[in-house]
Amino acid sequence: MKIRRQARILALQALFEVDSANHPVELVLAQRLEDKPLPPDGETFARSLVLGVLEHKPKLDELISTIATDWPLEQMAIVDRNILRIAIHEITLGDQTPTKVAINEAVELAKLFGSESSRRFVNGVLGTLVLRRSQPAPSKPRSASRRKSEDNSPTKENT
Predict the structure, then answer these.
(1) Are 73 and 65 in contact (CB under 8 A)?
(2) Where are the domains of the chain?
(3) Residue 98: helix, strand or coil by DSSP?
(4) Residues 116-131: what's their mean pLDDT?
(5) Is the pLDDT of residue 95 over 60?
(6) How far apart are CA 111 and CA 105, in angstroms?
(7) Which top CATH class is 3-135?
(8) For residue 27, is it left (φ>0), alpha (ψ between -120 and 50) or beta?
(9) The whole model's pTM is what?
(10) Per residue in 62-90, pLDDT tens?
């Protein structure tokens, strides 16, 4: 198994424990790394995922809530919620992982650790996120006063 997948698994397990049992993150990471040691680059990646998710959790949870409107965050399976947090962190805040890879890895984590429907749920939420990010933001209508001043502004032709 690839090092980065092992790091994601470790990160998911650590985030699950922090989320469900509220254990201190550094203690959880130390125990997980003692149980399943990773090479230095894998350990660094796992730590960056866990600490990045926890640092940006409010923003990540807000994104999840705006996409998965039928599933309140507190009612979502803990494993699904944390898989989404990791993937969305990698997609929106990380610069190391291509979007397709982040989605594929999240779906694989959902297959390994989630319920039968987790894979489809995770894929759907992440697909919607990517679709929304790729669409241009709606343009704001110009105000009448701005249009008027632009219409009266000098141009090359009348200067």
Answers:
(1) yes
(2) 3-135
(3) coil
(4) 97
(5) yes
(6) 10
(7) mainly alpha
(8) alpha
(9) 0.84
(10) 999 999 999 999 999 999 999 999 999 99
Phi then psi dihedrals of residue 5, to 5 deg: -65, -45
Distances (CA, A) of 118 to 45, 64, 81, 101, 123: 24, 14, 10, 18, 8
| Cα distance between residue 107 and residue 17, in whole Å | 20
CB atoms within 10 A of CB 56: 17
Helix residue ranges, H only, the chain:
3-21, 25-35, 40-55, 57-67, 78-92, 99-113, 118-134, 144-151
On the CB side of 93, CA atoms within 13 Å amount to: 18
Asked whether 123 and 100 are in contact (CB, 8 A), the reply is no
Residue written as tokens 């990540």?
A: 60
Q: How far apart are CA 7 and CA 116, in angstroms?
A: 23
CA dihedral 89, 90, 93, 97 (to 10 degrees): 180
pLDDT of residue 57: 98
User: What are the DSSP calls for 22-39, one per residue?
Assistant: ---HHHHHHHHHHHS---
